[in-house]
Amino acid sequence: MGLEIELRHRLLAAVRAVQSLPYLWPCPPDADSARRAGASSCASKHALLAEELSRIGIESRPLLVTGPLVPDILRDDQEFAAGIQLLEVHECLTVLTPWAGPLRVDVSWDPALIERGLPGTLPWDGLSDMAVAVGEGGPGWSVPRSRLREAKEALRERLYTAGQQETRDETLRKLVARFKSWRRASN
To answer: What distance in Å separates the CA atoms of residue 115 and residue 2, rounded to the nearest whole number?
Structure first.
């Protein structure tokens, strides 16, 4: 039992460390880019977390979910009107724990953004599923890590019609600018 408690504490520490990295987009979707930049997207944060968990002996699997691109708290803001109807293909993890079974872990939004009202779990207990950054209720797909990028792009091709990927990217750039202003205001 003592080993499970120690492992859970190490899991919680890894989750806190990666979650504390500021959300940033665009950036490469790999763990090394998150380490170098000290900030990262959902893709690179979860790649980094998966590596950290593997290092301490906890297995994880990529999980793709879809949900609204524009967070609920910004849906009435006209700056984001073009992206209101778009879905985001979002990455998080299923973490396989010996004490609670599989847990959904999403460290996308950093604490400053969660405190402003974006979906997230602070603090996390390591016993329950975390909130999903794109909201609850969307479908999810577990995919092999070796084919994660391919699977994510296939979902995007299925979801977006002509021009919607560009609208998504522009909306995401505006969201990231807003998030930076929130962080500046909270410092």
So the answer is: 33
